[in-house]
Specification:
Pfam families: Acetyltransf_3. The protein is of the alpha+beta class. About 30% of the residues lie in helices and about 25% in strands. The chain is built from five helices and eight strands. The model has no long low-confidence stretch (mean pLDDT about 95).
Length: about 190
């Protein structure tokens, strides 16, 4: 596994940190979990999961940011990931940076995704000086849509799109698109 510069963002209850080799096995287990992956086209094999970490590491090397490991200090060393990623496909709203998350089921519904995503948004706007961050998911992913709302994200224009990496007619192809702009984030922060 390629090493990136050690980096962390600290919240009240959460830590977003750089990836370690010890994260590969729990990440593979997360990506193989049927509940976790129900809003994705398929679960990932260990090889596919490891390849995803390599793509994440490459993103960190190229851009200086990416999806960080979510840690709950003193409780859970690997709780999933939360972070920022350049959208990797062409769409009416690209180029764009998205915020995303994938957490262990035992962390769901406890506010960890929202708290960690707020750290990532602060980094996006204060350190990276981004003007806009997007997020998207299938309409059935009500939990992620709720996190987007709690972050102050609003439906973008267009508010829906057909995900180009999924085949026409796929049951997950339709996605809801949300965004938060710098000025909206600043007004919520004030």
């Amino acid at each position: 596994m390629t090493q990136t510069i050690d980096f962390s963002l600290h919240g009240e209850r959460v830590l977003l940190r750089s990836w370690r080799a010890s994260d590969l096995a729990p990440f593979a287990a997360l990506n193989a979990d049927a509940d976790v992956m129900r809003h994705f086209p398929s679960r990932l094999t260990r090889e596919e999961s490891d390849a995803l970490v390599m793509r994440i590491q490459t993103h960190f090397i190229k851009y200086g940011f990416g999806p960080w490991v979510l840690e709950i200090p003193g409780q859970i060393e690997f709780g999933g990931f939360v972070g920022l990623l350049h959208v990797s496909f062409d769409a009416p709203f690209t180029p764009a940076v998205e915020i995303g998350w994938r957490l262990l089921p035992q962390l769901w519904g406890k506010g960890y995704a929202t708290e960690a995503a707020q750290l990532a948004l602060r980094y996006a706007f204060e350190s990276l000086h981004l003007k806009r961050v997007v997020s998207f998911t299938a309409p059935a992913n009500l939990a992620s849509l709720a996190v987007m709302h709690r972050l102050g994200m609003q439906p973008a224009l267009p508010s829906e799109f057909q995900h180009p990496k999924l085949p026409p007619g796929h049951h997950l192809q339709l996605h809801k698109l949300f965004e938060i702009r710098l000025e909206e984030w600043l007004s919520r922060k004030a």
